[in-house]
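Hello Y.,

Per our agreement to keep a running log of every chain we model this quarter, I'm adding this entry. I've kept the format consistent with earlier entries: sequence first, then predicted structure.
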Amino acid sequence: MSDEITVLIERETDIVTARQRGREMAAATGFSSTEQTMIALAISEIARNIVTYAQRGTLSLSCLDDNGRLGVQVVARDAGPGIADIDLAMRDGYSTAKSLGMGLPGAKRVMDDFELTSVLGKGTIISMTKWLR
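Predicted structure for the entry above:
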């Protein structure tokens, strides 16, 4: 399996593709099926935000090896409207799309590292990593 895969995110089917690729990479890295599901969930939430708010973006998946510490990194990029209030967007239950509002905080909860950068009118970059225990 390649060390990096990039999936163009424009529609619902791309979310499914990104989830599958993430699950495959997590399995190849040695994650349990439960952890694979958690990674796929986080990918799904972030990719859905791209489709909902930015219309299109990319999701890059990478295998990490930090001196023998293995992990999977997910980086989502879009050139959408950006997030006006990141603190508010990271609150459980907050949603501008009339959803459950579990997307960003849910993804952050199931991953080990989570970093969000957003500039109004320029877009959003989310980087999240799950490390193998």
